[in-house]
Specification:
Layout (H helix, E strand, L loop, with lengths): L2 H28 L3 H24 L2 H23 L14 H9 L5 H18 L11 H51 L2 H8 L6 E14 L2 H7 L2 H21 L3 E6 L2 E6 L8 H17 L11 E14 L7 E4 L1 H11 L6 E4 H7 L3 E11 L3 E11 L2
Parallel strand pairs: 4-6
Antiparallel strand pairs: 1-3, 1-4, 2-3, 4-5, 6-8, 7-8
Length: about 400
């Protein structure tokens, strides 16, 4: 609990106990026990002085100590004045408010000390019962009434205090749940749900081999010249709009976006969950991405186009590092997919032989011929045009 809240609650509690002291004091005086009545009234005076002093000086520790000490000692002295534990209607029970108040308003380490003081007074009250005055001016009916009032009021205080702590605990738990949901949402924005769950379950190293995957790279054509002609805000806005549409398509086809790289976009199919139609799924995505760009309004008089490349093969997928980590894939198949994109043509989807063999029965593919691919040598490639009827 914040100290400011503690101060406000302690002042409020002090005023309530001050009111109770006045009522108890007047009641005892009216019942012909003036000595007993002066004790609660004296408590009211000292408590008022304590509150005023706190308001004047702001010394919270002294204010807290004085209030805890007053509520601890008042019932004990009142018990002595009324002739012991029974004749005082167990008024000593009010002293238990002191250690409970220490739990609420002070550091936890102080509470056992106040509890020890309360238990000592309780034991002493039992010892003094045998030597205390055997009677007072209160009738049995009045003593019984005060038993009910003392036990009932202290019980109500216990209930209110426990309700407060339970409410505080539930509120804290709810805040933790909200933070956990935010954390999970953030994690799911960075990692696939299957991988995020493994991380939450304590896996330190995540590295998996996938034999059958398809990888797509897409790069915005003319990005450098567009950046030179546009303001940073304009460029970021248009990229955000485009990639948001791509993200929706990726989610629609249940694929995995790996990352964006400035003007580049990378997606994998068959990772982190294997699927037999990995090539068909990523081909459908690529065709819809092309359609999406054709349907967009021109930007600065230009129709935006992406150059795309797809390759299929085995990859290693996993997470590396502790900070700013992300789920990534590695392997020769990834490098080849990147080459398919970089050696491709604007607005077209270039695919490797490995991908062509997986798509040839269901998709229209136009042969591009053999070409020199950097780092790979001569490779036969195709353009993915559309789906067969």
């Amino acid at each position: 609990m914040e100290e400011r809240t503690q101060k406000s609650l302690l002042v409020a509690a002090s005023l309530l106990f001050l009111l109770a002291g006045l009522i108890w004091g007047i009641a005892y005086i009216g019942l012909h026990e003036p000595r007993a009545g002066l004790i609660p009234l004296s408590y009211g005076i000292f408590s008022t002085l304590s509150v005023v002093l706190f308001a004047w000086t702001g010394k919270y520790k002294f204010f807290r100590f004085s209030q805890l000490a007053l509520i601890l000692l008042l019932p004990f002295f009142l018990m002595i004045a009324l002739g012991g534990f029974v004749n005082s209607s167990a008024v000593i029970l009010w002293s238990v408010v002191s250690p409970l108040g220490a739990l609420l308003f002070a550091e936890f380490k102080f509470a056992p000390r106040w509890l020890t003081a309360y238990l000592c007074l309780l034991i002493l009250s039992g010892f003094l019962q045998s030597i205390a005055s055997p009677s007072n001016n209160l009738s049995k009916e009045v003593i019984t009434l005060f038993f009910v009032l003392n036990i009932g009021t202290v019980s109500a205080f216990f209930f209110i205090l426990l309700s407060y702590f339970i409410g505080l605990k539930n509120h804290t738990y709810k805040l933790l749940q909200i933070e956990q949901e935010r954390s999970d949402t953030l994690l799911l924005n960075v990692l696939p749900s299957e991988v995020a769950l493994r991380l939450k379950n304590g896996e330190r190293v995540i590295a998996d081999h996938f034999a059958n995957t398809s990888i797509l790279f897409a790069d915005l054509v003319g990005f450098t010249s567009l950046s030179a002609e546009s303001s940073p805000v304009e460029m970021v806005t248009v990229l955000n709009d485009v990639y948001s549409e791509f993200d929706s398509l990726v989610e629609k086809h249940k694929l995995e976006k790996i990352r964006t790289m400035g003007d580049g976009y990378m997606v994998v199919s068959g990772v982190p969950v294997a699927r037999h139609d990995h090539a068909q799924a990523i081909a459908n995505l690529a065709l819809e991405m092309v359609t999406c760009m054709k349907n967009r309004a021109p930007f600065r008089g230009r129709q935006l186009q992406f150059r795309m490349g797809i390759n299929s093969g085995e990859v290693i997928a996993g997470i590396i590092g502790l900070k700013k980590f992300h789920y990534d894939i590695w392997g020769d198949a990834v490098n080849t997919a990147s080459r398919m994109e970089s050696h491709g043509e604007p607005g077209k989807i270039q695919i490797s032989r490995e991908t062509y063999l997986l798509l040839m029965d269901d998709f229209i593919c136009e042969p591009k011929g053999t070409m020199e691919i950097k780092g790979k040598g001569l490779m036969e490639t195709w353009f993915l045009v559309g789906k067969k009827n």
